[in-house]
Amino acid sequence: MIKHTVVVAESQTLFRDMITNFVEDMEEFQVIGTLTNGQEVINFIKEKEVRPFLILLDIHMPVMNGLECARKLKEMYPNIKIVLLSAFDDEESIETVLSVSADGYILKSSGLDEFKDTLRFIMDGKFVAPQTLVQHFSQRLDSLLKMERESSLHFIKEQFNQHKDLNNRELQIIQLMKKGWTNRMIADQLGISEGTVKNYLSLIYKKLKIKSRVELLQILSDMTG
Description:
Blueprint: E1 4-9, H1 13-24, E2 29-35, H2 38-48, E3 54-58, H3 66-76, E4 81-86, H4 91-97, E5 104-107, H5 112-123, H6 131-150, H7 153-159, H8 168-178, H9 183-190, H10 194-208, H11 213-224
Parallel strand pairs: 1-2, 1-3, 3-4, 4-5
Helix pairs in contact: 2-3, 8-10, 9-10
């Protein structure tokens, strides 16, 4: 059976030895390096001229932490699978996981069976993360989808359906204002002058029977709570 090569990088000796033993206990893997920081990982790969199948990186390491190491490794060797290890599942730690294109995230509090199952899932090409992380990004995705829906032209047309005198260009401008765009940004997007945008806004205010941008933004805010 061909074994997949693994490098373990963990600054604390106890965790490093424990993780190494966990991996070595799996018949699918062979540990070829145990290191203490991210810079050592990069040096190891260059000097040994090896391409590990999987690298386990503790997020919090001296010299070069796991996040920076993961970012550099993915730039240099995008096919190497990288799993981040952490004792924390706080929002700040979770936010950084996808930013470095890691293939997985394992909490050090995970049980042995969960740890091994995670590595096997990652070996099969799946992204694996703790339930707290999955829930966090699920909530973020729901929020982003809601924001996107509420900033769509279709949504704006529905909300202003009673104002039949608003034309498509005016509705477009309202939509872009809903996204928080400035007059200059709106003008650039629509290929018109900033003065033309201001003229359209004056017409919009008149049709909605309001007097200012502040009032229009309040109306848009009230639509989504």
